[in-house]
Amino acid sequence: MAVKKGDKVKIDYTGTFEDGTVFDSSEKHGKPLEFEVGSGNIIKGLDNAIVGMEKGIEKDVKIPPAEAYGDHNPSMLKKVPKAQFPPDKEVKAGMMLRLQSPDGQQIPVKVAEVTETEVTLDLNHPLAGKTLNFKVKVVELA
Q1: Whole-model pTM?
Q2: In CATH, what class is 8-70+127-141?
Q3: Residue 75: CB partners within 8 Å, gap ≥ 6?
Q4: What is the dotted CATH code of the domain comprising 74-122?
Q5: DSSP strand E in the chain: where?
Q6: Residues of the chain scoring pLDDT < 50
């Protein structure tokens, strides 16, 4: 029986970058990823790749940025006065920070650049602009 939109599935997966570095896997989470196909709860490219698969079959999928987390958007770079950061904590380019949105959600942001007076924060998703590779296997289909 082939997977179709609306089916509930559990998948085992390993996600890697182009250089083979693993960025996520179901093994890391200790259980398969469970979701409804076509519901928009996972990235579009992976959601689409699951359609037509059968239980027990493994597949390699390459997902371009447009079907993953989008392209890197330069307008998502925000300059913030350095004075807004605690003086006892050194802020460096490349480090990850967590900001809190008005509704209380934690948002991961990357420090893109630090000058004497400003800190440039990159509010893009950390995987924006990246081609993602997945090895995926449907382990349950309901």
Answers
A1: 0.79
A2: alpha beta
A3: none
A4: 2.40.10.330
A5: 8-16, 22-25, 33-36, 58-63, 77-81, 96-100, 106-114, 118-122, 132-141
A6: none
CB within 8 Å of 61: residues ≥ 6 apart: 45, 46, 49, 133, 134, 136
67 contacts: CB under 8 Å, gap ≥ 6: 43, 44, 45, 48
CB 60 within 8 A of CB 134: yes
CA distance 68 to 139: 22
* pLDDT tens-digit readout, 85-120: 888 888 999 999 888 878 888 888 999 999 999 999
Give the closest residue to 46 by CA, choosing from 142, 127, 105: 127
Per-domain boundaries in the chain: 8-70+127-141, 74-122
